[in-house]
């Protein structure tokens, strides 16, 4: 089995603009897909965390729901990578891009920063999630990928050609015990699918694409058709609703603005942040409280990555630890963002402290060391509900 690309974090080493033609290339593309699904999470969390408590509730819960679905997408891509004999790599400092950074797998020269809740942030999110067709017009073709959906189309086409050439059993050669199932994952949109063959692989890819861009010619994703769940507006159009301060009507189309009820959006009720903030900047300030809060947040984020890495590499039920890990991040964010920026000049400009999502190898190693005994204490190898009693979650 070809596996020389297993376990490699791509970072800035993106694959070429062509179809994956070999099994190692397919695994490389899927690792890239795993990284791009995660890439969206820090910017979305930043916008969500900067919303002042008790305000912008519709926007807050909309963004939170999208973050949960991005975690679902990561899990589906990891299942697909495992199904074709790969090894998902999450617990690695290069897995987390340094923001601001170029939009991955895009020929567009756009930098994606960490921004507070604002119209600019929503426009950035629309750029990330934009479909191949915007307002009924295809995105102008230029050398390179122009949307996440196009990147997934390359994966889908390459997968189909590999199955046709090598055979389904050769392509889907992974250990099925590494698959995360619906009983392992807590989420509010879509379902985790075990990927074991071509049919389930194509279904997983459809869930990821439809939840982000919507079904062809529709503002809605396909969760109602696939899982019998309530129909939801796709990510791109949910961000459009927030920006327009107006919900979509069920009869609205992708090519027109939303015409439904107004959404109460108060852009001023957000903590303004410096998109270029760093832990090093905080360390130079005389007030060390923000520095300590920022480091604690990054350490907790490293633990989340360690839990996911463990879940995607042989202990599927460990994914449930993502729930308390996300709750801890929320609590740490509340302590961090309510502080004025420790630099007096920036504080005078109205900036507040913010998480930087800077993860180094030492934090990854420490996270892996502490999550392993927690998982063992929880006895995740049983079919019974996970018992957190006696587990020191932090």
Q: Please identify the oligomeric state.
A: single chain
Q: Overall 3D geometry?
A: globular
Helix and strand composition category? mainly alpha
Q: How many individual domains?
A: 2
Helix content: 40-55%
Give the spatial strand order of the biggest sheet.
1-2
Number of strands: 4
The biggest sheet, with number of strands, parallel, antiparallel or mixed sense and barrel status, is: 2 strands, antiparallel
Approximately what portion of the residues adopt beta-strand conformation?
under 5%
- Amino- and carboxy-terminal Cα gap: 40 Å
Please tally the helical runs, counting DSSP H or I stretches of 4 or more residues.
14
């Amino acid at each position: 089995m070809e596996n020389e690309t297993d376990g490699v974090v791509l970072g800035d080493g993106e694959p070429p603009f062509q179809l994956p033609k070999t099994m190692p290339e397919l695994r490389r593309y899927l690792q890239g897909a795993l990284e791009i699904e995660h890439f969206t999470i820090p910017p979305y969390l930043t916008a969500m965390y900067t919303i002042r408590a008790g305000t912008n509730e519709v926007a807050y819960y909309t963004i939170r729901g999208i973050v949960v679905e991005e975690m679902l997408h990561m899990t589906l891509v990891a299942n697909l990578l495992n199904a074709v004999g790969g090894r998902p790599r999450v617990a690695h400092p290069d897995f987390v891009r340094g923001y601001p950074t170029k939009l991955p797998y895009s020929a567009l020269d756009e930098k994606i920063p960490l921004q507070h809740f604002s119209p600019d942030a929503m426009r950035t999110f629309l750029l990330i999630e934009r479909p191949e067709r915007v307002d009924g017009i295809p995105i102008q073709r230029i050398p390179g990928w122009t949307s996440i959906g196009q990147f997934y189309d390359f994966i889908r086409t390459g997968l189909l050609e590999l199955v046709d050439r090598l055979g389904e059993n050769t392509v889907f050669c992974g250990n099925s015990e590494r698959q995360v199932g619906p009983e392992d994952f807590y989420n509010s949109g879509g379902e985790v699918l075990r990927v074991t063959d071509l049919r389930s692989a194509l279904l997983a890819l459809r869930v990821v694409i439809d939840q982000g861009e919507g079904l062809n010619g529709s503002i809605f994703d396909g969760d109602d058709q696939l899982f019998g769940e309530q129909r939801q507006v796709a990510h791109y159009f949910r961000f459009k609703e927030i920006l327009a301060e107006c919900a979509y009507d069920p009869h609205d189309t992708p090519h027109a603005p939303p015409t439904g009820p107004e959404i109460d959006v108060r852009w001023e009720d957000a903590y303004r942040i410096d998109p270029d903030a760093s832990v090093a900047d905080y360390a130079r300030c005389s007030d060390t409280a923000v520095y300590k809060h920022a480091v604690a947040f990054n350490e907790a984020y490293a633990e989340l990555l360690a839990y996911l890495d463990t879940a995607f590499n042989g202990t599927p039920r460990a994914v449930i630890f993502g729930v308390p890990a996300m709750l801890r991040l929320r609590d740490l964010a509340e302590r961090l963002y309510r502080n004025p920026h420790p630099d007096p000049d920036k504080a005078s400009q109205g900036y507040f402290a913010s998480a930087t999502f800077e993860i180094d190898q030492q934090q990854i190693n420490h996270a892996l060391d502490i999550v392993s005994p927690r998982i063992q204490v929880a006895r995740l190898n049983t079919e019974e509900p996970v018992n957190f009693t006696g587990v020191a979650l932090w």
